[in-house]
Amino acid sequence: MLRIITQQAEAKNELRRICDRTSHDGIMHKEATVREVLQTVKRQGDKALLHYTEEFDHQRLTPDQLRVSGSELDAAYQQVSKELLDAIQLAAQQIEAFHRQRVPKSWVQFGDDEVVLGKRYTPVDRAGLYVPGGRAAYPSTVLMNAIPAKVAKVPQVVMVTPPGLEQKINPAVLVAAQEAGVSNIYRVGGAQAIAALAYGTETIPKVDVITGPGNIYVTLAKKLIYGTVGIDSLAGPSEVLIIADSHANPVYVAADLLAQAEHDPLAAAILITTDSTLAKNVQAEVKHQLQDHPRRELTEKAIAHYGLIVIVDSLETAAELSNEFAPEHLELEITEPWDLLNQIRHAGAIFLGTSTPEAVGDYIAGPNHTLPTSGAARYASALGVETFMKHSSLIQYSSTALNKMAGAIQILAQAEGLPSHADSVRLRTFGERHSD
Ligand SMILES: NC(=O)c1ccc[n+]([C@@H]2O[C@H](COP(=O)([O-])OP(=O)(O)OC[C@H]3O[C@@H](n4cnc5c(N)ncnc54)[C@H](O)[C@@H]3O)[C@@H](O)[C@H]2O)c1
Ligand SMILES: N[C@H](CO)Cc1c[nH]c[nH+]1
Ligand SMILES: [Zn+2]
Hints:
This protein is of the alpha/beta class.
C-alpha cells in the first residue's frame, strides 16, 4: 500500500529515510561483502570472478567463457526481431545526436604580455562500461554508456554484464553493444565485475574510468574503488519524484511511479501533490495496476518500503521538499511546469508536462539515463561525453609576464615555506638562489 502523509515534519523525515535507503545500517553488511569481493578479485583475478559468479549469479563458467565469443555476438543478431533492432538503432541515433551537441572543446586564450592560457581535452585511454543484468536486461543502458564514450573518441571501450541464465546474455544487449562499437564484452556482474575493471585480471583489462548504473552491490563497489579508477557517479537503485497538481491524470501518475519501482526492491517512487483527491486516486490506481503486474512481488516491495505520497499546501513547498530529496528523476505533472522550474535546484533529469513520462528519457529522448541517485544529484550530474574525458590546463608565460608576477609568486612561496618555488622564479628574473 502506498502511504499518504499530510504532516510536513513527518514528510521530511520519511523523505530523508528514503533518500538514505542505500546507506542505512541494514545495508552496511553488504559493504563488508563488497570490500571482500574487491580484495579477492585484486589478489586472485579470474579465479575469483568464476568463484563469485557461481556464488552470486549461480552460474558455473570456465575461464574462456568470461569473454563473449565472436560467434555468440554474430548469433545475437539472428535472435532479435527487426522491430527491436530498428528501435535500438533509432534510440542510438537520438542518443548520439544529443551527445554530439556539447562535446567539450579545447581552447586557448591569448592575454597581455604574450600570456597564453587554456584547456586541452583528451579522452581516457580505456573505458569500462557496467551494464546491469540481474533483474532485467538493459540494452538501452548499453547505448547510454557506449555512445558518449564513442563520441569522446575513447580508443578502447569494454563492457561487463552479468552472465544471464544458462550463461546466455540477453541478445538485445549484445546487439546494442555491437551497434554502439563496444570492443569486448565480459560475462561478469556485480562488485566482482567492478573489481575486474579497476584492477584488471588475466582476461579483463584494467580501465581508466568505469561508468554505468547498477544495484546496491555495484554502486557500493564503485564508491569504494573510486581513486584506483575514475567513476561516473553513484547511479544506483532508480527513483522518481513526481510533483502533480489537480490537472494530473492519476492513471498516468500511478504508471510512472510503478515504472521506477519495478526496477528494484530498493527503488523509490514518490508523489508530492497539492490535491488530496489526486492523492487518493493515485493510491487506488497503484493498487489496481499492481494486480496483474508481471513483476508484482519486487515492485510491491519497493512501493511498500520506499513509496510515498505527500500532500502539501503549495507547489513551492513541493519544490522545497523535492530539492531536499534531490531525485534522480523529477516529473512536473502540473499545468505550468516551466514556471516551477526556477525553484528546482537538484535533480538528475527533469520531465516537464503531462505528456512526458520518464520512460521517454529512459529510452529515446537522447539525454543520458545514467543518473545520480540517493541524493547524489545535489553534487553530480548525468553521464556525458565529458565523463570519458579529462582536461589539462595550458599555461605559457613570456619573460615580461614572469617579471611582472615574480614578486607575488615569491611572497606566496615564502609564506608557504617553500624556498625552491621562490628560487624557480627568482633565478629566471634576478638570477639569485635563496641561499645566495
Ligand atoms: N541510476 C541509474 O541511472 C540507473 C539506470 C538503470 C538501472 N538502474 C538500476 O540498476 C539496477 C539493476 O540491478 P539488477 O539487480 O537488475 O542488476 P545488476 O547487474 O546491477 O546486479 C546484478 C549483480 O548483483 C550481484 N549480486 C546479486 N545478489 C548479490 C548478493 N547477495 N551479494 C553480492 N552480490 C550480489 C550479482 O553478482 C549480479 O550479477 C537497479 O537498481 C536499477 O534501478 C539505475
Ligand atoms: N530508469 C532507469 C534509470 O534509473 C533507466 C532505464 C533503463 N531501462 C529502463 N529504465
Ligand atoms: Zn527505468
